[in-house]
Amino acid sequence: MKTALVLVGLVLAGCSSTGVVSTGSDTYMIAKSGGGSGASGAEMSAGLYREANAFCTEQKKQFVRISITEQDYMPFVRLANAKLEFRCVSESASK
Fold this sequence. Notes:
Elements: H1 2-13, E1 15-17, E2 21-24, E3 27-34, H2 41-58, E4 62-71, E5 80-89
Antiparallel strand pairs: 1-3, 2-3, 3-5, 4-5
C-alpha cells in the first residue's frame, strides 16, 4: 500500500509535454502540465521556451514567439500548465 501511494505521488508530481506539434507552415505549438504542489505556470513556460528554441536551432532557424498562456497550480482544481505557439523562421526573415 505504501509503495502504491509513493508511485501515485510521483506520477502526479511529474510533468507531461505534448512535444512539438506542427500547426501550419513553420508554425508550431507545445504544451506542458504537471508539477504538483507549488508549481507555477512560469516554470512550465520556461521549459517550453527551452524546447522550442532547441527545436528551431536544430532546423538552423530562429525562434519567434506567437503567444503563450500559463496557469499556476491550484489544489484540487488543476495542475500548473502552459501552452506556447511559435514559428521557426530563417535568420534573414527574422530581421
